[in-house]
Write a structure and sequence with these properties.
Elements: E1 7-10, E2 13-16, E3 21-25, E4 32-33, E5 44-49, E6 51-56, E7 63-65, E8 68-69, E9 72-74, E10 80-83, E11 86-91
Parallel strand pairs: 3-4
Antiparallel strand pairs: 1-2, 1-11, 3-5, 5-6, 6-9, 7-8, 7-10, 10-11
Length: about 90
């Protein structure tokens, strides 16, 4: 049986993390598009490298996980990711 994929919820919309790298940003080309003027076109990536990581792509307003600003962070279930003025919730089924 295949494990349920990890997800990111943005404004009530759930996005499945099914690719090794998912770009989050304002651009139409982003895998996870967020309509927030405070988010860069290519703001951050979520990478699956054994575990999941969020990586800031030199965005203007940065990335925070659970209130801590950082360039790269390992993600755990229920982590809250702040990009611009938007909050995303990472979920990983156990």
């Amino acid at each position: 049986m295949e494990a349920e994929p990890a997800t990111v919820t943005v404004d009530g919309s759930q996005h499945r993390l099914e690719k090794p790298v998912m770009v989050i940003g304002r651009s139409k080309e982003s895998d996870i598009r967020v309509a927030d003027a405070n988010i860069s076109r290519r703001h951050a990536e979520i990478r699956k490298e054994g575990t999941f990581w969020i990586v800031d792509l030199d965005s203007t307003n940065g990335v925070a996980v659970n209130g801590r600003a950082l360039k790269r962070a390992k993600l755990d279930d229920e982590d809250r990711i702040t990009l611009g003025s938007s909050e995303l919730v990472f979920r990983r089924p156990r």
